[in-house]
Amino acid sequence: MVKSKPIxxxxxxxxxxxxxxxxxxxxxxxxxxxxxVPILPFILEDRVSLPQNQIQSHxxxxxxxxxxxxxxxxxxxxxxxxxxxxxxxxFLIGLFALLAATLMLFLGQTVPVLVVARILxxxxxAVVWTIGLALVLDTVGPENLGxxxxxxxxxxxVGELAAPxxxxxxxxxxxxxxxxxxxxxxxxxxxxxxxxxxxKKVAAQWQxxxxxxxxxxxxxxxxxxDDEDVNEEEPLLRKKEEDGYKVPEGQPKAxxxxxxxxxxxxxxxxxxxxxxFNQATLLATFDATIPTEAEELxxxxxxxxxxxxxxxxxxxxxxxxxxxxxxxxxxxxxxxVLGFGYLVPVLILLRLARPGGTSQIVIYCVLLALCGTGLAxxxxxxxxxxxxxxxxxxxxxxxxxxxxxxxxxxxxxxxMVFSLGLTLGPLISxxxxxxxxxxxxxxxxxxxxxITTLLSIIYVGGKPKVLKxx
Length: 470
Known about the structure:
- This protein is mainly alpha-helical and 470 residues long.
- It contains 22 helices and no strands.
- It has helices at 9-12, 15-35, 40-46, 55-83, 88-107, 111-140, 145-196, 200-203, 209-215, 217-221, 225-228, 234-243, 253-257, 260-263, 267-298, 302-330, 332-349, 358-377, 381-396, 398-401, 407-436, 438-459.
- The longest helix has 52 residues, at 145-196.
C-alpha cells in the first residue's frame, strides 16, 4: 500500500528547512550546555551547600562531565549514522536524552544528580552532532559543505557564547525557573522542527522526475559551455592528486570496519582535528573561568558575570559569518594561521586585569572582545579542512568507504575531539587558575595557540612550497 503524500512535503524536505533544523539542533545542544555556566557556582553553593573552596573544582568537573560523555559516545554515533537508513530517528532520540538531562539539572539537589544530568547531555551531544552533520552532507552534498558548515558554526557558536549571558541575567531576575524555562522553550521548538523534518531521500519516493529536476536546476541544465573550455591538463592533475590518497589493498579488519581510521594517518587531517580541539579548549576555558574571575576581581554576582560574556559574544556574532566566507574564498590556512597567531598576545594580555572599579572592568571587557575576534576567525577552518581531506580520500577510493562515504565517521571523530577539548579545557584551566593564577593560566593557553599556529603553517591546506621536496 502506497503511503499518502505528507502535508507540506515540499518545504519540510527543502534544503533550507533541513539545514535550519540541524542548525537549531546543534544550537540547542550548545545553548543548554552554556546556559547554566554562570549559575553553576551558585547552584553548588545554594542548592548543594558546598564550601567555597570546593566550588571551582566542582564547576570544572560538571563542565567536563558533559564533554567526557560526548568523547566516549561520538565514535559509536558515527558508525550508527553510516549504517542507519534514515537520520531522523536517532536525531530525535538524542533530543529525548537532552530533555531528560535538562529536567535533572532543574530538579537536582545533589552533586551525583547534576553529574548524571551532564553525562546525559554529553551523550545527546554525541548523537546530535554526528547525525546532524551527516544529515547536512546528505542534503547539500560535498560541493556545498564548506559554506553550509561555516554558516551553521557561526550561528551555533554565538548561541554557545550567548547562553551564559542569558543564564546570568535571567537567574538574577527570575531564579532557576526562569533559566530552565528558556531551556524548555528552545527544546520545544527543536522537537517540533525535528519531528516535521523529511529527508531528501525519503521525500524522493513522492516526487516525480519533473519535480526533482525543478529542485535541482544545476542537474537539469546539464553540461554548460564552460565544461568544454576546461584545461586539458586538469584531469591529469586531478588524477595525480588523487593517487596520493589511494588506500592500498590488504587493510586490517579494524580499518575495514571503521575506514576513517586510515585517513587519520594524514597529517593534514590530524592538524584539522587539533584546530577543533584547541577551539573547544578555548571556549571551555572562557566558560569555566570568566564567572569565577569576575567574582574574585570585581565581586560580581551571576547577573554581572553573565553580562561580561557580551564582550566575548559580539565580535563572534559580527565577524563569524565574514570569517566563514573568507575561509570559503581563500581556504582554511590563512584563517587558521592568523586566528591562532593573533590569540597568542591577546590571551597573554588578559593578565592586565586587576581588582578595581569601572576602569578595570572596561579593560577586562576590551580584552574579552579582542579574544572574541580571534574566536570568530578560528571558527570554521577545522571542519572545512577536515571535510576537504576526507572528501579527497573518498573520491580516490569510492568502493573502500562505501556508498555514504566516511563523512559521518569523520563527524563522530570531530565531535569526540571537540568534546575532549571541552573536557580538558575546564579541568586544566581550573587547576592552573587555582595553582598559578589567572594570568599565568592564560600564558599556557597562549602557548597552545602558538604551537597550533606553527602546525597550521606547515600542514593546513598542504605544505608551503618552501617545505615541499624539490
